[in-house]
């Protein structure tokens, strides 16, 4: 009896357990089915493969972490899988359609905005860079006024760079000095950028270090904007009162005041924001790039020597007159610059745009207003079909491959058949002419006059965070002035 009771008892306990399990199973199935339905309803309907999100309901934070830490791998895998097809990349902050490069000519005809993209992705509403949403005036002036004036501006730019270099780089030919080269180059670069922006005597030198810190990760934003405004606003008001006499100088502010078509374009606060965007976009990127060229050449001393010889020969050929043509005829240095930006572009993604109106591609793919699109410049730069042995730094790659073509399409050009170092289309980097000539001006002297060594033999690392590729301004290098150099004087 006892046994039966106990069996009966156990039997009802089993039944109870079974019912509980059944309930749990039913509830779990219902949750899964519901999640599946929600997941499907949240998924995109355009059939594009989704990269870096495992299912539509996966918290975006996971995509963001993966993208922050493994962006190169994610792009490599996606390129290997979908190389000829667009795919949707989940970055965590937004989902972008990544187009293969051959779509660019078709995309160029669509209503896309690069500035809206830059403003949105750089949280322009928080840092004040959203002024670029309303106008492309700064880009227009850079291309139509600044670029043609560069040959004439070269002489004062050269002089300023030279005197800054004498101040910030070591002069001893005996001792090695350990320093933070990026911060030093930033000072030279900002001399050039502030000169083309404000003209000669306008900007007090004590403000220049502040402008330098209008850099993405060092922004003391509101304070920096305020400092810049405190200078630019009264200066712009002053020049506006008598443009004929006060806007004669070839500089960005004067051109922006004289060429303005409406009150918005000549508003001093707007001018401050636009100028801030130009300075922030150009100073740090070019300085890191210059350090990248030097690091690559230190790592490959035979190229360093060849390029140094090229500089020495040019110095003799032009008898010390380093004009535009002389800098632009340094074919080997130009080739090393192309190779440096191919291996370490500022961003793995280029040609990033926001769609302005609903539109469709010839393939039938619909793009909706507000959608972000981009291309993977990195996948192109690493394509062994375009660049054999793509991970190798071959300083003379472009020079050796086809010299005529290299000369016709130098570093400063937007060459859509090569990599996308300046982006592409109408909104490719408008600062490329400034970046190229200023970088060459600094590099010619540094490569000719200095020896470099890595600290403890280790190259300063290049980091990749999200799509951004950068070197820390705190990276250090050893430098010593060469006793025997070509004696270049700007
Ligand atoms: C080596 C240095 C530099 C590199 C690698 C670089 C690269 C780029 C790239 C890839 C873009 C995006 C283009 C696109 O989406 O199609 C861009 C945009 C831009 N760059 Fe540069 N840049 C450099 C230097 C400069 C300098 C020196 C300036 C200013 C003097 C500058 C000003 C700008 C501006 C204003 C834009 C935004 C254009 C727009 O979309 O409205 N950049 N740059």
TrEMBL record:
SUPFAM superfamilies according to UniProt? Cytochrome P450
* Cofactor(s) essential for the protein: heme
Binding-site list for heme: 429
GO MF annotation list: heme binding; iron ion binding; monooxygenase activity; oxidoreductase activity, acting on paired donors, with incorporation or reduction of molecular oxygen
Q: Which Gene3D superfamilies match?
A: Cytochrome P450
The pathway where this protein functions is: Mycotoxin biosynthesis
* Protein's recorded name: Cytochrome P450
The organism of origin for this protein: Clathrospora elynae
